Amino acid sequence: MALNLFRRRPKAQGDPLLGVSPGNARRFKHGNPLDAIPLVPPEVQVIHTHPDGAIIIRRETKPTSRLATTISRLLRYKWQSHVQLDANGAAYWRRIDGNTPLEEIATTLRDELKIDMETARKGVLTYTRDLMKRGFVNLKIDRMG
Q: Residue 134: phi, psi to the nearest 5?
């Protein structure tokens, strides 16, 4: 599955970027969602880099049923999930270091990709949300302030 960092998609009502809707906005009352710091879980690895700059990342997962667990144990099968990131996504991925907030990543991508700041922010938030849904990225949110 390839994810495009700056694709245009219509906004669904009540589904703003990063899942912050009026119903769950209280989680972000402490500040801007772009202040969050993305983290890569230890089970996620880059397994291939394409010449055009795209990368493939992999995450080991657990079987979802007893039968699947038994079969995977007998066959020594590892459950995995893969995502292919385009060159823009790979540029985003390389900036995830566990210390850099999303706002700084958006600023760096704005300068590197020559796009406006609003597009960079929306792209970073959308991309972070998509990777979070698949378990490839976690967020560290400073609850202070």
A: -95, 0
Instruction: Print the SS3 string covering the chain.
Output: CEECCCCCCCCCCCCCHHHCCCCCHHHHCCCCHHHCEEECCCCEEEEEECCCCCEEEEEECCCCCHHHHHHHHHHCCCCEEEEEECHHHHHHHHCCCCCCCHHHHHHHHHHHHCCCHHHHHHHHHHHHHHHHHCCCCEEECCCCC
Q: Where are the domains of the chain?
A: 32-140
| pTM (global) more than 0.85 | no
Cβ neighbours of residue 24 under 8 Å, at least 6 residues apart? Answer: none
Reported as a single tens digit per residue, the pLDDT across 75-89 is 988 888 889 999 889
Q: What is the torsional sign of CA 127, 133, 138, 142?
A: positive
Tokens of 63: 């079987």
- CATH code of 32-140, in short, is 3.90.930
2-20 residue pLDDT tens: 555 444 444 444 334 444 4
